[in-house]
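Before going further, it is useful to explain how the protein records used in this thesis are read. An example of such a record is reproduced below.

***
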Amino acid sequence: MRSNSMTSGKPRLAYIGVGLMGGPMAARLAGLGYKLRVFDADAGRQAAAMASGAVGAASPKDCVEDADLVLLNLPSQAAVETVVFGQAGLSDALLSPQIVVDFSTVSPDFCRSIGWRVQAATGCEWIDAPVSGGPSAAGEGNLTIMAGGSDWAIARIRSLIQDVGRQFTHVGQTGMGSVAKMIAQLVVGTNYAVLAEAVRLAEAAGMDAALLPECVKYGHADGVLMQQLYPRIAAHDFAPRAYARQLLKDLDMVQELARSSGTATPMSGQAAQLFRLLITAGHGDIDGTGIYRLYEGAPSHLTAIGESARAQ
């Protein structure tokens, strides 16, 4: 059992995965005075985090030494598996009462499985805490966080959460934070496609597409995505705040959850098909706003979908 500093001050942190989301969050935590060790498979990203005040580590195993909380922010389930159970992974070094807090977006079943395996192997608890808000929110401490874990573990991370998020909900036991994130991504993913369609229709009809958020302000079509996401699509700004390939990964996990629960989700299924077309066309590393590119030039495969809908 490791001693911990959480009763006397800020918890000591290990942060693994300091990329698009993890990098800004790690920089914020270092700036707030947290003692922070970081590891990333990309040496450039790790160096950037170190330049912000963190201490670098040689491996995930090395990173967790003396940490109270172990934070993960990784791009895929495979990456989480490797960091935890791969060579020089977390499972070689974790000891109770350390807690793992996974900010990654993974499926609920995977989350429950790896959380159980970590607890069985090390005695450490696992919290799934997927986030929403993008890199700027991560750097400003304005993330929306939905978490699954025991009451005891959640109580131990609340002071940290106050420094990285403006909205925090304890949804239930381990895995339920990921359920909430899947449902949130259903809403977000389908709206990316809908808003791109709205921009293209406005342009084709001769309207200044950029005026739509003003037109619908305070009406039923208004909302955060209309005011923040739509203008980027209208400006053809596809610089990545989140990669299109990551959104497809999330939509595929939504479909997995739908199948396992026996639930029909045709709208998110259609959105997943559209993002798959985008990635197949070689646009996986642009922002999800780039779904607009599928609508340019009235491509025949999308025109056929629209004609089919009008025939119903």
Remarks:
- The radius of gyration is 21 Å.
- The chain has two domains: 13-173, 179-311.
- The beta strands are 13-16, 36-39, 55-56, 69-72, 99-102, 125-128, 131-132, 143-148, 165-172.
